[in-house]
Known about the structure:
Distance between the termini: 24 Å
Keywords: Membrane, Transmembrane, Transmembrane helix
Radius of gyration: 27 Å
Protein name: Gustatory receptor
Mean pLDDT: 78
Organism: Caenorhabditis briggsae
Number of helices: 16
Transmembrane segments: 6-24, 108-127, 202-224, 245-275, 345-366
Amino acid sequence: MLDSRILHVSCITACLSVFAYRVIQDIAIDIRLLDSDSISDNIQSDKFCNVVFDHFHLGIFLRNETFSTEILQAKLKTIFSKMFLIQFLNEQADFLHILEEGFLTMRFVAYFGFMAVCIALIEVLVVRRMGHLVRSYRALKQLKSEERKEWFNCIKEFSQEKMAVLLFCIARNQAPPINKHYIDFGEYVRDTISLRARCTDITLFACFYCMVAIGHVATNSIFVRFMKTVPLLERNLKTRLRGESVFVVMYLTLNALVALSAILIGATIVSYAFVHSDYATIFVLESARLFIRTMYVLDRLTQCVCASRMEMIENRQNRLTDDQISAILVTGFQSGVTRKTFRNIYIYSTLFMSLILYSFFAKNGLFVNRKLLAMRFVTEVVITIDRIMNTERIRSTELL
Length: 400
């Protein structure tokens, strides 16, 4: 516990130090803070100056990435000025263009609609049909209540993480003036309500995460409902689950989700030719993590209802209680060496890919986009490292 806290504090301190260094390095200096000799030296050097004008400020600012004593003093004075503080806070809270570029485009609406339809169909054709096998109305009602909480919690965690990526890791500090329709809210509404057809980085990520959400939410819903439904079934039904149509549909659905994740891996590998390598790496890791997740759920549930498992229960059911049969069905062949190996591969690969992803998010958010709230991904990096160092305490189902 102490080592984890030391690691956490060390990582946050190091990231804040680098963040502060990059912010100070990028600060443009008001020439009124420099003497004439320094101004002349800077203008004659290979550095450049910007002329900044808006409703509040009129002035000439120098960008100088060196750290001489005078330059550093001028930059520190700029940091503690009201103008810089307002600009810094505006950049941290700059998010309205996310609506225009991510959520108010025709491509995102189409992808979001496809995602909603797929999740709804899986919910109706697979998840809810499992509940029809439960005879006890009270048990079924409690099952639906618990599952609804799990479902909303899964969507909430997924949405929060991906929204943070869009807000802090993909969003730019300052959008080009041509895109700043939100300055005039009336103009913003008129320009965006018609749904734009162009595609930006934010649009690309928003559409991609809609596809990832299908596999993420569906595998969680199917797995949780199966694990909680089996103990509530009648004894004679537990021995013939394999023949129930709902489990055939479940098997086909999970295979379709595996195929979807495999297609995403192929498409994201090709994306290296079209998008920035950092973005393409994020796409590949997200797709690979989804592929391993869907493969694990498919393997786990297939083993629970496989023919050999059903035959074993059938032969020994006179010596087994209902709870023992349920435990056998729920755990599958997880005690076998092969199953343990696959489970460990799933845990380690998921954790290592998550570690790389959170590192990319932290780097892009803190050091590229200068978003201080991206510090949450540094915390995720520390948590993931702690999990990797203590995998014996992690259950594979915790990562679903």
